[in-house]
Amino acid sequence: MREPIQWIRNDMPREVAAGMLALFSDEEKAKIRAFHESFPQYEATPLVHLPALSEKLGIGGLYVKDESYRFGLNSFKVLGGTYAVGKYVASRLGKDISQISYETFLAPETKEAVGEITFYTVTDGNHGRGVAWAANKLGQKSVVRMPRGSAQARVENIRAEGADVEVTELNYDDAIRALARQAESDPNGVLVQDTDWKGYEQIPSWILQGYSTVAAEAHEQLEAYGIWKPTHIFVQAGVGAFAGSVQGYFASIYGEDCPVTTVVEATAANCHYRSALAGHRVAVGGDLATIMAGLACGEACGISWDILKNNARFFASCSDWVTALGMRMLGAPLKGDTRIISGESGAVTAGLVSAVMTDEANRDFREALGLGPESIVLVVSTEGDTDPDRYRDITWNGFCASTEK
Ligand SMILES: Cc1ncc(COP(=O)(O)O)c(C=O)c1O
To answer: One fold for both 6-76+204-403 and 78-200?
Structure first.
């Protein structure tokens, strides 16, 4: 039995939270981009147009940004971790981020000036890999903790960056609380977390900024396809920092005339959807059991929630079958379309677009969205096969946790 897709229109009163959008001023955006472009690993990831699939689904164009190509790390997440670490190092050196580059990261004088640092973070895999990667480049240490049930392949990828990594018995949000205490008791400790709480806002806001390189590239690439503006954006959320970044970036470009953005979550961890229902931020606790490991976060980041609450148009909650569908669709494309290897947290938005366009059960949602032959849809495949065994289990063997209970 397939659990239906749940959705809600954002009817929350808009507050003027323009302060958050200052994160994406032209000046800030230029600095973020210049920082990432200074990395030798930097190359814009492909924005893939899938004409055959678009036609089959009955939309004007489906454009998928393929983040499996990012820095050879198989996910966009490194963009946030590197930018936050870069901003932190800049502040320790008394410099502006525009004076910091990859060269500065490698320079022995940087390590001499900042001394020993241990970067702490909790991750389901991708964020921690990015932070460990950045720490490694700086010649610094990293301590990475993971929620219970984390995949061994993801643990090994982080260990390969020299991190002290352990899988805990806690869920994502509880693991953060535990590690934050540990980082605080370490005089050289710096927590690089992708969510915020009172008194801990600066680093998460840098992470949000760092992710905006994805949106900036997509914006340019759409223009190269002759598209000035997509009509719809579907963006997946765990803590919501990525969705907030994408929404913040596009709101900074198009203002009130922004594409219709839908925030997409795993039903097991649908804190944004439930917050939209409640009209205020609410948390989801417990196991957060979903194959979408990157989206298994039960507490929304406050900075991004402010952006989403005021700008996103819909919130949707999807069971695992939706992302399994997206993974298979992108991995086994129609003739002429490009193949995209999209992992469990990467494919849910493509799966959702397909289910909304093809299943009459979703007619209401389709009509509310106004999706049809004129629509230009942007989604981001945020990861490749970061857990290759699970990827094959889903795409080859049809494994799909939430329908197999
Ligand atoms: C592949 C992937 N996509 C999306 C997300 C969601 O990002 P956020 O937690 O910022 O909402 C994550 C988070 O780890 C992820 O790993």
So the answer is: yes
- What the block records as the tokens of 265 is 């979550």
Which of 158, 104, 151, 169 lies closest to 133 in space, CA to CA? Answer: 158
Cα–Cα distance for residue pair 40/348, rounded to 1 Å: 31
Task: Respond yes or no: is residue 95 known to be catalytic.
Answer: no
| pLDDT at site 401 | 77
Under 8 Å between Cβ of 160 and 144: no
Q: Is 124 a catalytic residue?
A: yes
Q: Looking at residue 287, what DSSP letter applies?
A: T
In our burial notation (b when 16+ CB lie closer than 10 A, e otherwise), range 79-103 reads bbbbbbbbbbbbeeeeeebeebbbe
Label the pairing between strands 232-236 and 189-191. unpaired
Domain ranges of the chain: 6-76+204-403, 78-200
Strand order in 164-167's β-sheet?
164-167, 141-146, 118-122, 189-191
Q: Residue 22: pLDDT band by 50, 70, 90 thresholds?
A: confident
- How many Å lie between the centroid of ligand 1 and the Cα of residue 214? 13
Our CA dihedral for 370, 371, 376, 379, rounded to 10 degrees, sits at 110
Q: Alpha-carbon distance 357 to 350, whole Å?
A: 11
Give 105 Cα–ligand 1 centroid separation in angstroms.
25
The CATH number, out of the four listed (2.40.50.140, 3.50.50.60, 3.40.50.1100, 3.30.460.40), of the domain defined by the range 78-200: 3.40.50.1100
> Is 6-76+204-403 a domain of CATH 3.40.50.300?
no
How many Å lie between the centroid of ligand 1 and the Cα of residue 335? 30
* Ligand 1 contact via 297 beta carbon (within 6 Å): yes
CB 297 within 8 A of CB 244: no
Dig out the tokens for 314 from the structure. Answer: 């819909």
The letter for the amino acid at 323 is T
**Cα 129 to Cα 156: distance, rounded to the nearest angstrom:** 10
pLDDT tens sequence across 234-252: 999 999 999 999 999 999 9
Looking at residue 404, its pLDDT comes to 45
